[in-house]
Amino acid sequence: MTIRTHILGFPRIGAARELKSALESHWRGDVSEAALEAVGQQLRARHWAQQRDAGLACVTVGDFAFYDQVASHIQLLGCEPARFGFDAAQSPLSRYFTMARGAGSDADHAGCCHGRHAHDASGHALEMSKWFDTNYHYLVPEFSPLTRFSLACERLFDEVAEAQALGHEVKAALIGPLTFLWLGKEKTAGGSEFHRLALLEQLLPVYGALLDRLKRQGVAWVQLDEPILGLDLPNAWRSAFESTYWQLNQVGINILLATYFSPLEENLSLTCRLPVAGLHVDGIRAPHELISVTDWLPAHKVLSIGIVDGRNIWRTDLDAALAVLRPLAARRNGQLWLAPSCSLLHVPFSLEAETDLDGDIKSWLAFATEKLAELALLKDVLAGHPDDAALAALAVSRRAIAGRRASPRVHRAPVAQRLQALSPTADRRDSGFPLRQAVQHARLQLPHFPTTTIGSFPQTPAIRAARASHHRGDLPAAEYQRQMRAEIAHAVERQEALGLDVLVHGEAERNDMVEYFGEQLDGCVSTRHGWVQSYGSRCVKPPVIYGDVQRPAAMTVAWTVHAQSLTHKPMKGMLTGPVTILQWSFVRDDQPRATTALQIALAIRDEVQDLETAGIGIIQIDEPAIREGLPLRRGQWDAYLAWATRAFRIAASVAQDATQIHTHMCYAEFNDILPQIAAMDADVITLETSRSDMQLLAGFGAFQYPNEIGPGVYDIHSPRIPATADMVKLLQKASTVIPPANLWVNPDCGLKTRGWAETEAALRNMVEAARQMRAA
Ligand code: GLN
Ligand code: ZN
Hints:
Helix content is 42%, strand content 13%. It is an alpha/beta fold and 776 residues long. Helix 25 (695-703) links the parallel strand 22 (684-687) and strand 23 (708-711). The site of zinc ion has 7 residues, from loops.
C-alpha cells in the first residue's frame, strides 16, 4: 500500500493570532512592512514544520495570505483593478492592503454582520463575499473587457523557495482558473455586454506560465482548487473545464484538481475524465460519491480522499473512516492520498490552548493541529503498520468517540420528548396577519412611518473594557451589572431625546449576538481561543453546539424589563434566531442540522414567552444568516428553507396576537426566496436596502409582501451622516411599491460599530425624515 497524506491548506492566523496583531499594528503604522513580512515568514515556517512533523508527504505552499487568498491571487495574476490607479512606486503589499481595505481608510470594514460588508465610504475596497457556504469572506475580483493578466508578483515563488530552503517537499496550492473567474464580477462601464468567462482564453497562458515557473522550481505537484465543480454550473462553464485542463496539462507538472464542499453529481464523470494527474474529493460532504469516483477515475490518476472534516471541530471516528477507506484502497490497488475534506482555514488552530475547556467535551474535539495527527494515524493504520504509539492513540480516540456517543450531556430525553410532542400548529400564530395587525395597532398606538433601530447601540471602549475586566474576574458581577444597566439607561435616554417610537435596550451586555446566547444555553460551550479567520485580521469564535439544546433560565428578560421600566415608549425585546445561532456555530454532526435548529428554536420560544409575560409588547428575532445557510446546490434549497423557516416560526409563534414579532436580515438578495421569507410570517421585517437604492423593494412590491417592512434608510457601515432629504427620497420610493401604512423607518443594521456622535446625528435626521413623510 502507498498511502500518502497532505492538506489543502492550513489556518494562517497563528496559534495566538499573531498575524492579526501584526497586521493591525502594521495598519496603525507601528510595524514596518519588513517586520510584517517577517511575521508571515515565521508563521509559514512553523506551520510547515508542523505538517512535516505530522508525516505529511509534502507541505502546502500558497495557502498563506496577509489578508485573503483570492486577493493574493489577483495580485499574482496581475489583475488589480485599474480604478485603484496604482503606480509602480507603490509596494505590492501596500497595493494589496489598498485593494482589501480601500484607499485612505483607517477603519477596517465595519464588523457587523460578521464582516460581510466591504464598503467604507472613504475607499473603494474590493467587495467581499462569502466563500461558498462558509463564514470566510473573500475579496471579489473585478473583471472588465480591459482586464489583462500577467505573472505580476513573486510572492508565491518566493514562498516556494522558502519552503524548499527549509528542506520541505512542496505542493503548491492555488485557486483554479475557472473558480477564479467564477468568483469575480463583471465591472463594465455603461453596461456593455461582457462576460467574464470570455477572459479565460487570455488567462490560461498566464496559468501555463505560472505552472511552468513552479515546475522549474522543482515543484512536483500543484493543487488547483475548483470547488465550483460542486455547484449547478451553467453549460458554458462546464464545457470550459475540458479544454482548460487539457491546455494546463501540457505544462507537464502534476495537477491535483481539488473539489470540496459539495457533491459533484452531474459533474462527476466530467471531473474524473479531466486530463490531470490527481483528483481530491470531499468525503465528508459527499461520502455517497466515493465509490463512483473510485470507479470512474482512471487507475493511473491519484485519488485524494477528504476523510477528516475540514469544516467542523469534531474528532474523527477513525473506525468509521477506516471502514470507508479500506474498500476504496482496495479498488485503487492500495494507492490513496488522505486529506482533510477542505482547507483547515475553517477550523481553529489547536486544542492545546483550551485549558479551561471541560475535559469530556475537549476529548470530543479536533482542531487543525489535532486533525494533522488524525491523518497520520489513519495512514499508519490503513497501511497496516501502526506502532505502539499509534495503537495507543487509536485506543484514546475510540474511547473518546464512544464517550461522546453515550454521554448524558449530549442526549437529554426531555428535549427530544418536547420536540416529539410539538403540535403540528406549533409554528402558527393564533390569527392571520390582518387580524394581528389590527390588534397590535390598537395596542401600540404608533404613528405612521414608525421609527426604530435594529438593536445594538455603540459598543464604546468603556463597555468593552467592563466586559473584558468582568471576564478576567476583575470586575465583580454586581458591579458589571450596574454598569451595563447604566449603559442601558443611557441608551434609552438618548432614544427618547431623539424621539424614536420603538426603543431598544442597546445590547451593551452582549459580546456577540450568537455567543451571548451560546454561553447561556445548555448543550453549547464557548472556547477560549477557538478563533477562525473571517476576513483580513478579523476572526470569529463560534460556539460549539455539542448536545441537546435547552434554556436553563431566561437570557434577556431582566435587561429588557429594566429597559422598559425606564420609558413609556414600547421597548423591543431582542433575540437571535435559531437559524443564525446554528449558522454561526460549530454544530454537532450526530444528528441532522434541522433537529438542532428546532431545539434552539424551542429555547428561543421560551424566551419569547417569558418576554411577553414580562409585558414586552414587541420582540425582534434576528435572522441575518437565513440566506447564507442556503445549500450550494439549488436542488436542496426547498428542504433547507422548509426547516429553517419552520424553526423561526416555532420560536416566534408562541407569541399572542397582540405581541408584535419583528425579524431582521442584513442583506439585499431576497428575490429568489421571497415566498419563504414571507412564510416566516413576522409582523415586521427590517432589511438592508439603502445601498441598493431600494432596488430590492421592487421584488417585495411585485410579490406583494403581505406584512410590514422596514427597509433600511441608511447605511450603518459608513461613518457618513445620512441627509434627511436622501432618506425621504428613499422612503418615497419605497412608498411606491409598499403600502405606506406598512412602512417602518430604521437604519440598515445594528449600530454597535459606530460612535455615539454620528449615531445621534444620523438618527436625528432619520426621525426628521419620518416626520416629513407623515406630514406629506
Ligand atoms: N440586533 C443586532 C444588532 O443590532 C442585529 C445584528 C445583525 O443583524 N447582524 O446588532
Ligand atoms: Zn443586520
